[in-house]
From TrEMBL:
Gene Ontology MF term list: NAD binding; NADP binding; oxidoreductase activity
SUPFAM superfamilies (UniProt xref): 6-phosphogluconate dehydrogenase C-terminal domain-like, NAD(P)-binding Rossmann-fold domains
Active site: K181
UniProt family annotation: Belongs to the HIBADH-related family. NP60 subfamily.
Leader sequence segment: 1-22
Occurrences of domain 6-phosphogluconate dehydrogenase NADP-binding (ranges): 9-162
This protein's UniProt keywords: NAD, Oxidoreductase, Signal
Domain 3-hydroxyisobutyrate dehydrogenase-like NAD-binding, residue spans: 180-288
Family matches, as Pfam families: NAD_binding_11 (PF14833), NAD_binding_2 (PF03446)
InterPro entries, per database record: 6-PGluconate_DH-like_C_sf, 6PGD_dom2, 6PGDH_NADP-bd, HIBADH-like_NADP-bd, HIBADH-related, HIBADH-related_NP60_sf, NAD(P)-bd_dom_sf
Name of the featured protein: NAD(P)-binding protein
Length: 330
């Protein structure tokens, strides 16, 4: 590996997850007096936060590759990732460099990109992350890494305690990290559905949501409590014009990957299918209302199935809705 010591770091992809992680990384580099993070994006908006923190913008991927030894990538989906990696390989200057991809994609996409990058003498680490953008900015994500162990050693100091609160080592096969991510998405989506049902039952039967929520926190832990709060706080249905914490569209993509893998393996994920059906219904509801919904909006669908309104008390209060408004109980 030709990387300098310390390696010069770069970042490609400044969506809500990418920007949050890149900012944490840049802050750490500043703290340690290390060379600043170079970055690029599909669309570079001026004066962005990362630049203010000391990051150095590059005009394109070729400039980024010239300036860096290790480049992190965070984009939205398989199609974008494949196109971005093609732009990296077409620079023909990846020899000895390290690419670390944090995007959630199908394991097969990762496998074929790893093979392609190997033919360019580029080391590849698959490093999908677990947690929403707010958790990302707090540096509290989990990250799973898979790839050559000596390369993982090089990048670990920039992960543990910087981008993530914990690093899970999956082994040498990059695609397995994505298999773990997909399995985790399946668990997360199922939990959303399960807690939605619990809250609907509580509401119908007259058990206060706050009491149920304290039980969830005390007995099932912080992750379940966070999911519960995304329901009860109303953030599952953001106010008009507000962006969701985690986009429903991305969750549909993510759970779809898991269902596809299960199908290939001849396994039925019935809970996954249930979640997917509810997310698709939520998407239709959002389109009808012209609202961007959060992945937790399955809560609204589960509510409607039980004869409740899609909007819970928190949403009604926030949006100033009364029972006479359109969309009331049916
Ligand atoms: C980076 O590019 C993406 C895709 O074009 C865009 O959605 C995002 O807002 C950009 N981020 C910044 C900080 O410019
Ligand atoms: C993924 O790869 C496996 C094994 O090579 C194959 O059976 C499967 O059809 C592929 N799936 C997709 C969606 O390409
Ligand atoms: C990769 O490395 C091998 C052996 O060092 C060399 O022969 C080959 O030309 C390199 N390929 C590229 C694309 O850099
Ligand atoms: C729960 O949410 C808090 C605040 O948003 C965050 O700091 C914490 O890391 C989250 N915990 C888990 C386990 O997701």
């Amino acid at each position: 590996m030709s990387s300098t010591n310390p390696p010069r770091l770069g970042w490609f992809g400044l969506g809500s997850m990418g920007l949050a992680m890149a900012c944490n990384l840049q802050e750490q580099l500043t703290k340690q007096n290390l060379p600043a993070l170079h970055f690029a994006n599909r669309s570079l908006s001026k004066g962005d936060t990362l630049k203010e923190l000391g990051g150095i913008p590059c005009q394109d991927i070729s400039e980024l590759v010239q300036a860096c030894d290790v480049i992190f990538i965070s984009v939205t989906n398989d199609e974008v990732l494949t196109s971005v990696i093609n732009q990296f390989t077409s620079t023909n200057s990846l020899g000895g460099k390290i690419l670390v991809d944090t995007t959630t994609v199908h394991p097969n996409t990762t496998a074929s990109l790893a093979t392609k990058l190997a033919s360019h003498n580029c080391s590849f680490i698959a490093a999908p992350v677990f947690g929403p953008p707010l958790t990302a900015r707090a540096g509290q994500l989990l990250i799973a890494v898979a790839g050559p162990p000596q390369v993982i050693e090089i990048i670990t100091p920039y992960l543990q305690g910087v981008i993530a609160r914990g690093v899970i080592r999956v082994g040498e096969d990059p695609s397995k990290a994505l298999l773990l991510k997909s399995t985790s998405n399946f668990i997360g989506a199922g939990l959303m559905y399960l807690l939605s049902e619990a809250h609907v039952l509580a509401e119908k039967a007259g058990l206060p949501a706050s009491v149920l929520e304290s039980l969830i926190e005390a007995n099932f832990g912080a992750y379940a409590a966070n999911t519960s709060k995304r329901l009860t706080s109303g953030s599952y249905m953001p106010a008009a014009g507000q962006a969701p914490n985690s986009a429903l569209e991305l969750a549909i993509k993510d759970v779809g990957i898991g269902l596809g893998i299960a199908n290939e393996q001849g396994v039925r994920l019935e809970v996954g299918e249930l979640s997917m059906g509810a997310m698709e219904e939520a998407r239709a509801f959002g389109e009808e209302k012209g609202r961007k919904l959060d992945s937790h909006s399955v809560f609204g669908v589960v509510r409607k199935k039980a004869g409740l309104r899609f909007e819970n008390e928190a949403v009604k209060k926030r949006d100033g809705l009364t029972e006479h408004d359109e969309g009331g109980e049916t």
